[in-house]
Specification:
mainly beta; 5% helix
Length: 310
């Protein structure tokens, strides 16, 4: 399918979904999952634009600059208050500028990435007056639907510039949430096992840990629309060194931590809007590789999105 046809399909899906409606009923963090089914029951359509900028250190002669735009299209369904399922299909655009043979070149790719299937089971909850606590397990798998054979001038692009991994990658998450009146706290721990994919390249396994606190600034009493929430998250990601044909790949593996302030607004009963800035506050890269400039707001990830119930 051509890039133009893929974009038309995305627009048609958006138009179809927005002809339908239900009601947003719960708050949730922006950059990770929650133990509470955020729409309790029924169906949800959501998307989130993520803009990422990475660069080499000042001493690298390649002087690489990578810009990534990700827009996952997510359809979710909750048959009960404790069970939810979702499918996520991301649209990805990558652009890398680098020095090559005394000239500046740009490598561009765009298209659909790897599809993720997941299920959530809220297996324990405690409900009280204006408060609730939930524990959930979330499991799923990323499917190798993204292209792994993109080329530039006949040369195959490296794995980190491809749209997909070519591998089946299962993941498991544990999530916790606590909501008391206008205050909330959320936590999550996830481990993803990456398996060998295209050209027997295996991206490193990934451990993610997240913590968030939220406060409802408006209204003071529940629950007439509109509603406004402020959120502060701590998002950590630790990735093992990659391997290819049984050998470690140099200049791979990292540990990165973000401090992520954000805001959520519910202007309509069935629509939630959200935005966040992921500011890098710690980074440990193994070898010379693209990364974030810690302390530079220009290297922050920009996230914005919406959730629409139908």
């Amino acid at each position: 399918m051509s890039v133009a046809r893929q974009k038309i399909l995305v627009v048609v899906c958006l138009a179809t979904i927005f002809c339908l409606s239900k009601e947003v009923l719960a708050q949730a963090p922006i950059n990770f999952d929650t133990a509470v089914t955020p729409f309790f029951s029924g169906s949800v359509f959501q998307s989130r634009g993520v803009f990422i900028h990475k660069s080499d250190d000042d001493n690298n002669v390649l002087d690489r600059r990578l810009t990534v735009k990700q827009v996952p299209i997510v359809f979710g369904y909750a048959p009960t208050r404790d069970i939810a399922m979702a499918i996520s299909v991301p649209w990805i655009e990558k652009s890398q500028r680098r020095n090559l043979s005394e000239r500046r070149v740009t490598l561009d790719v765009a298209g659909l990435g790897d599809t993720a299937l997941l299920g959530r089971w809220t297996f324990k909850k405690w409900l009280g007056h204006w408060k609730r606590t939930d524990l959930a397990v979330i499991g799923g798998v990323e499917l190798p639907t993204g292209d792994t054979n993109r080329r530039d001038e006949g040369v195959r692009l490296p794995p980190d510039l491809q749209l997909g991994s070519g591998s089946f990658d299962p993941f498991l998450r544990m999530a916790f949430s606590r909501i008391v009146k206008r205050k909330s706290i959320f936590a999550e721990l996830q481990y993803k096992v990456n398996t060998p994919g295209a050209l027997d390249f295996k991206f490193g396994d990934v451990l993610e840990y997240d913590l968030a606190v939220a406060y409802r600034f408006f209204p003071a009493e529940k629950y007439p629309n509109p509603e406004v929430f402020g959120i502060l998250e701590l998002n950590g990601l630790w990735e093992q060194q990659a391997r290819q044909r049984g050998r470690d790949v140099a200049n791979t593996g990292n540990h990165t931590v973000f401090l992520s302030p954000g805001i959520q607004v519910i202007p309509l009963k069935n629509l939630l809007l959200e935005a966040s800035v992921q500011i890098p506050i710690y980074q440990d890269l193994r070898g010379k590789q693209l990364g974030f400039d810690v302390g530079d707001l220009g290297d922050s990830n920009i996230v914005f999105g919406f959730r629409f119930l139908y």
